[in-house]
Amino acid sequence: MPDIDWGSRPFSYRPGKKLLTKCGSLPNTPFQAYFLVAFISGLCSLLAWSLCLVAGAILAKEVAIQCQSRNLRLHYPLLIAAAYSGMVVWHMGYSGSATLSVATPDHPLQEMSGIIPVTETMFSTANIVLALATIVIVALACTLLRPADEDIIEVNTDRLREMKSRLEDEERSEQSSKTFASLLDNSRLVNIAIALLFVAYLINWFVTTGFSLNLNIVIWTFVCLGLLLANSPAHYLKLLIEASGPVGLILLQYPFYAGILGIMKGTGLASVISAVFTEISSTQSLPFFAFLSGGLINIFVPSGGGQWVIQGPVFLEAASKLNVDPALIVLAVAYGDQWTNMIQPFWTIPVLAIAGLHLRQIMGYTFIIFLLTFFLFGGSLLFLF
User: Fold this and answer.
1) What is this structure's pTM?
2) Average pLDDT of the chain?
3) Do residues 30 and 119 both lie within one domain?
4) Are residues 260 and 366 located together in one domain of the fold?
């Protein structure tokens, strides 16, 4: 993992910054600090996986800085691992690829599963309870993983403060221009006006269709929220451009993962892997083996939507033969996809870029979370669903 200048990519939404700064001042003990970061990261992940990666890392930095100023020593790598732990529940929430895909009309597997509404997947009682329970248990686990005092690695606050000061000076300089064009570019009213159009469309959608989600509606929701939170059109555009910094390595790797996905789909390897699990499954165990298969394929193809497209047909066919609810199969594959994120380094890139750490410094902690959530997800699919 290269040493990226993470500080040049700030989390610049002012409401978000204020909220995270406030949250960062709450912990008074190491237990509270680690628990808070993991817990809020998990909640953010249920809203959007990308929010978890960015807001979680920023919160971990805020907690580290403010606790250090009060002579409360915290292990910075564990804080960042706690921030990343939210990715172990992302597919259970609002931005879940597989659950949204099957809820979208004319999705690729509609002939096999029909349209499965989100009330039967992400908003089912069992999924919500398991998601919240997982967040709390993982947060508690993070508090138990803290090292001895002599092994603690604290955050470098001098570097953080220097970069923060420079960025604030640049922002003030940009906003000082008084031309008509610059006033429009830096006007919050323009953002609000555009966002209101999105709000009107979303209200009309939910009024006419009921509580119906699909990928397009989720995307428009986040565009609308982004416009409302950003200070101006110029600010929103700047945030989008800056965001490509931490994710630049992700953008570079995606074509390679797309190639791996093409190979696995074109050669039938993914179907063979899935078929092995379906052949040894029963009505009771099929969701569990779908979970294991999802976890295995996520190691090679860290894409929830792409993974579902190549695994879904095999497991949906088996579900039909064994009389298993297809909604449960969707959730099982989703759980497998999110589970092995704890040992798949792909999505750690933006978190490590923001935090200024290396993968080896957090992987030990995320591996423990990987083991813990195996029993949570696997046990639930075998005995509770």
Assistant:
1) 0.76
2) 81
3) yes
4) yes
